């Protein structure tokens, strides 16, 4: 039977969150590399992305396990679950987008998809900077504001990408495939914004 800890395990929790946020930056970096070089080394990069997704799952499990063994937590228990889940969701969406490249037999990556991946990486970097300020509940409004600006950029990109797809592509299958991939990439951006919202709520409660 697991022993319940009565003292706050602050350092362990914050370390796990910073590891998870760093993992989102790494999986986003790999996504950028994949879309820049695909189909060259597509299999190798997809495997690395899958490994990062599994690492996200592992870190989420560690947070949940530690929460279940800790009586006094450094901040609201439900918020801690939500933040862990939000970080894991980012990895899931990136992994799904990468998987679809292989499943759909893509041969050429449009420029707008590469731009979307760059937005994901920049937003993940801002989220990581904010998560690294979580211990001590330091203000991260600048980082979160920049992330939300990037989410707006991501919204505009997916609209432009789909419009360009219909205007320049006659192959119906290609349209369906790339519309789906563009939307999966946008879901990764939305997941980053959701994580920012969860983090902001935590900071507001603990000022």
Give a written overview of the molecule:
By secondary structure, the protein is mostly helical. It has one domain (10-205): Up-down Bundle (Methane Monooxygenase Hydroxylase, Chain G, domain 1), CATH 1.20.58.220. Helix content is 80%, strand content 0%. The model is unreliable at 4-8 (pLDDT under 50).
Strands, helices and their partners?
Layout: H1 10-37, H2 42-68, H3 77-103, H4 111-131, H5 141-168, H6 172-205
Helix pairs in contact: 1-2, 1-3, 1-4, 2-3, 3-6, 4-5, 4-6, 5-6
* Terminal residue distance: 36 Å
Number of domain units: 1
Radius of gyration of CA atoms, rounded to a whole number: 18 Å
According to CATH, the homologous superfamily is Phosphate transport system protein phou homolog 2, domain 2
Assembly state (oligomeric): single chain
- Give me the secondary-structure category: mainly alpha
One letter per element, helices H and strands E, the order comes to HHHHHH
Largest sheet: none
């Amino acid at each position: 039977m697991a022993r319940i800890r009565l003292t706050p395990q602050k350092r362990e929790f914050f370390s796990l969150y910073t590891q998870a946020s760093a993992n989102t930056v790494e999986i986003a970096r790999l996504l950028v590399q994949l879309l820049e070089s695909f189909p060259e080394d597509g299999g190798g990069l997809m495997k690395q992305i899958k490994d990062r997704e599994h690492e996200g799952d592992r870190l989420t499990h560690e947070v949940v396990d530690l929460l279940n063994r800790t009586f006094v937590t450094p901040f609201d228990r439900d918020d801690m679950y939500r933040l862990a889940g939000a970080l894991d969701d980012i990895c899931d969406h990136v992994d799904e987008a990468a998987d679809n490249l292989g499943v759909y037999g893509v041969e050429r990556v449009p420029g707008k998809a590469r731009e979307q991946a760059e937005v994901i990486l920049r937003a993940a970097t801002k989220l990581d900077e904010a998560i690294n300020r979580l211990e001590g509940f330091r203000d991260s409004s600048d980082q979160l504001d920049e992330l939300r600006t990037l989410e707006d950029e991501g919204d505009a990109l997916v609209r432009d990408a789909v419009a360009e797809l219909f205007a320049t592509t006659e192959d119906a299958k290609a349209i369906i495939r790339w519309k789906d991939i563009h939307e999966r990439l946008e879901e990764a951006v939305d997941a980053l914004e959701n994580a920012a919202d969860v983090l902001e709520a935590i900071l507001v409660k603990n000022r």
